[in-house]
Write a structure and sequence with these properties.
With 139 residues, this protein is an alpha+beta fold. It has two helices and six strands; from the N terminus they run αββαββββ. The protein has helices spanning 18-23, 52-61; strands at residues 32-38, 44-50, 65-68, 73-76, 85-92, 99-105. It has a four-stranded mixed sheet with strand order 2-1-6-5, with helices on one face.
Length: 139
C-alpha cells in the first residue's frame, strides 16, 4: 500500500489525536523512531520508523504499522511474513521524539529471521573502573 505522508496532521480529517500530534517531535522527514519491545519479557525486538499516520494506524488497529524509508510506503508488521506484532501499549518518551511500543511478537521480529534485531552483533564494552558489575546499580 503506497501512501504519501504529511509532516503535520490535517485537522479536517480523522487521524492522530491532535493533542498527541502537538507533542510529537519529528525529524525533518516527518518521522520519529519507534522501538518495539516484547511486553512480558522486556526484550528489545526492533526499531522502526513512524509518522503521524503510522502511529494513528498502530493505535487504532492494534497492529504495528511503520513507514518504510526504502520503499516509501506504510507496512504492517507481519502482513507478508506472518510475524505480527500485537500492540499491548504505546508510550512517548520524555522528549516526545520516540515511541515505545510494547507488543506480543509472533515469530521473528527481524527481517533476517532472528527473534530480535539486536542479538547478532553484540559489541564489547569496557567496565568502568571501580564497577563491580556490568549492570547499573538500580537494576
Amino acid at each position: 500500500m503506497t501512501s504519501s505522508r504529511a509532516t503535520a496532521p490535517d485537522p479536517t480529517t480523522p487521524g492522530l489525536d491532535p493533542a498527541v500530534a502537538a507533542r510529537l517531535k519529528r525529524g525533518a522527514d516527518g518521522l520519529f523512531p519507534a522501538i518495539a519491545q516484547q511486553y512480558d519479557t522486556g526484550e528489545v525486538l526492533m526499531l522502526g520508523w513512524m509518522d503521524d499516520e503510522a502511529l494513528h494506524r498502530t493505535l487504532t488497529t492494534g497492529r504495528c504499522t511503520y513507514w518504510s524509508r526504502s520503499r516509501q510506503e506504510y507496512w504492517v508488521k507481519g502482513d507478508t511474513s506472518g510475524h505480527a506484532q500485537y500492540v499491548k501499549s504505546v508510550a512517548l518518551d520524555c522528549d516526545a521524539d520516540t515511541v515505545l511500543v510494547k507488543v506480543d511478537q509472533v515469530g521473528a521480529a527481524c527481517h533476517t529471521g532472528a527473534r530480535t534485531c539486536f542479538d547478532e552483533d553484540v559489541l564489547a564494552a569496557a567496565t568502568p573502573a571501580g564497577a563491580s558489575s556490568p549492570t547499573h546499580p538500580s537494576q
